[in-house]
Amino acid sequence: MTNNRKIIMDCDPGHDDALAIILAASKISPLTIEAITTVSGNVDVEKNTLNALKICDMIGLDETPVAKGADRPLFKEREVAEEIHGETGLDGPVLPEKPTKELAEVHAVDVIIEKVLNSNQNVTLVATGPLTNVALAIRKDPRIVPKIEEIVLMGGGTFGNWTPAAEFNIYVDAEAAKIVFDSDIPIAMFGLDVTHQAIANRDIMNDFKAIGNPVAQFAADLLDFFLTTNEEVFGLEGGPVHDACTIAYLIQPSLFDLKHVRVDIETKGEFTYGMTSVDMLGVTGKQANVTFAQNLNRDGFWELFNDSLKSYG
Predict the structure, then answer these.
(1) What confidence score (pLDDT) does residue 2 get?
(2) Please, which residues bridge with residue 292 across strands?
(3) In terms of C-beta density within 10 A (0-12 exposed, 13-18 middle, 19 or more buried), how is residue 137 classed?
(4) Which residue numbers are catalytic?
């Protein structure tokens, strides 16, 4: 595996999505962001798309196209997480009401297909929201499947945060997740087991502030709101920066302890819809289909984050 990858970031920004974009676009990152595509998730797709454009403005990501995608899951009603991310999906930082960056006039699914098929090397999809766009792209043009190096996603885990069994991203569109997990594309999964080890507290927020550049201050402002809502809603001691784990893995995979396991998606259970059934002991006898992140080097993770923020000058 090489970390000098072309990536497409499919997301629902979102405080932790914003932090993932900041990490991926930093000067110490070896990643090339081919496109940012948005999906309904933390808030509706219109707000998520507006947030993606504002984030690009904030960090100077001028040449990367941003495309709007699916406005609802494949089959079920839309569900959002305003109690965690606020009414705008990116509450906290003071940002211009209207971004200067313009939205691409092509649907996100078509952007994914076009970027993958026309690339001179395989492309990695980084999915940090519900998997609706990714599933639609796979179904619309299966030619992309062998040209996707890996799908690196935040979702699932061995416990839930939206129901007792299910994590939000998978729960919102479990049918899409099933298509993706059954696609035979290599998957690296960063679920709650590991992302709850990447909890930003006020000491981390103050470290960001001390860096002193506008992007670091933006990151601190994101954390100020996000850690408060996670404390109030989930009783956590800060805010897990879930989505940033995907990019940290692509930049520095040695930060994570990984295990190759079988993961299946539950789409029919009365109490378990959206559950990721993680076969840690191999009891099903099924072929492993996921690289599952178990543990995080916390000190190394935050060192990488601080170095990334310092690189913005």
Answers:
(1) 57
(2) 189, 259
(3) buried
(4) 242
